[in-house]
Specification:
Number of helices: 11
Largest sheet: 5 strands, parallel
Distance between the termini: 35 Å
Strand content: 5-15%
Structural class: alpha/beta
Order of helices and strands: HHEHEHEHHHHHHEHE
Number of strands: 5
Strand order of the largest sheet: 1-5-4-2-3
Number of domains: 2
CATH architecture of the largest domain: 3-Layer(aba) Sandwich
Shape: globular
Length: about 270
């Protein structure tokens, strides 16, 4: 902690709601628009937890959807003179799922059929699968896109969320075919990675307890962009594993809606 940290701390003391959020010791959601200072509050909270409340061998888990936002968070932590250690995770939800769920636990549960070594689906193979899916359905590209297929794959996840969003019968059928073809390869794509991670966290108490022992708090920026599968991961970790949540976002903005990110998840 340095002069910049305490300067910014004094700034949020002038805002009753920001200060109340910062001081919260329970699950907290900060909803505010662009330029409102919510990321500052998140970074201040993260540094305070890391310095005061989270002790080795536990670490800080600070997550966002995009690499750009993660870079901004790391810059702000550096501004506050906090350098993440080996026990901390500051990164995207995809990296979190890969490094802290799929890699350490996937091989323990062969029923999921995850193939090792892990390989991400190359673009050219994804294109081949997409073309084969269209051919099986007997439709042209203009009727269903890969973006719609992948959005449906994440929106179709079952779980605790009461949000139900359905695109169309055609997209739903395409998503089933596409997913089957992906899982027949030696690869995983980003959607399968998140879906497997969500399923494993939902099904396996051992995975939930292991994550709880490593990360007592889950801090999330731009929550509205995470999507249904990622929302289900958060619900399981907070409601079933006892990890505390501190999330910030803007209900009126979801720039990654093409991935299945909808502000409606805030309410569920």
């Amino acid at each position: 902690m340095n002069n910049q940290f305490f300067h910014d701390l004094d700034l949020i003391k002038g805002d009753t709601q920001q200060w109340q959020a910062y001081e919260s010791e329970t699950n907290t959601v900060v909803i505010a628009g662009p330029g409102s200072g919510k990321t500052r509050v998140l970074a201040l909270k993260a540094v305070t937890l890391a310095r005061v409340s989270i002790h080795s061998p536990q670490g800080l888990a600070l997550i966002s959807y995009s690499r750009e936002t993660v870079r901004e968070l790391k810059k702000r932590l550096k501004l506050y003179n906090y350098t993440p250690g080996n026990r901390d995770f500051i990164g995207t939800i995809h990296s979190f799922s890969l490094l802290h769920v799929i890699k350490p636990f996937g091989h323990l549960f062969p029923e999921y059929g995850i193939k090792y070594p892990l390989k991400l689906l190359p673009d050219e193979v994804e294109q081949q699968i997409y073309n084969a899916t269209l051919a099986e359905l007997g439709v042209e590209r203009k009727y269903v896109s890969t973006a719609e297929i992948n959005k449906q794959r994440t929106l179709s996840r079952a779980g605790k969320s009461g949000v139900k969003i359905f695109l169309s019968d055609l997209v739903a059928r395409a998503a089933i075919i596409f997913e089957k073809k992906v899982l027949e390869t030696e690869y995983l794509d980003y959607t399968a990675l998140i879906n497997f991670s969500a399923q494993m966290i939902q099904d396996q108490e051992f995975v939930r307890r292991s994550l709880r022992s490593r990360f007592p708090w889950l801090l999330i920026d731009e929550y509205q962009d995470l999507g249904k599968s990622l929302h289900e991961i958060v619900l399981e970790l907070t409601l079933n594993a006892g990890i505390k949540l501190f999330a910030v976002g803007d209900m009126n903005q979801s720039i990654y809606g093409f991935t299945g990110g909808y502000p409606a998840f805030w309410k569920n």
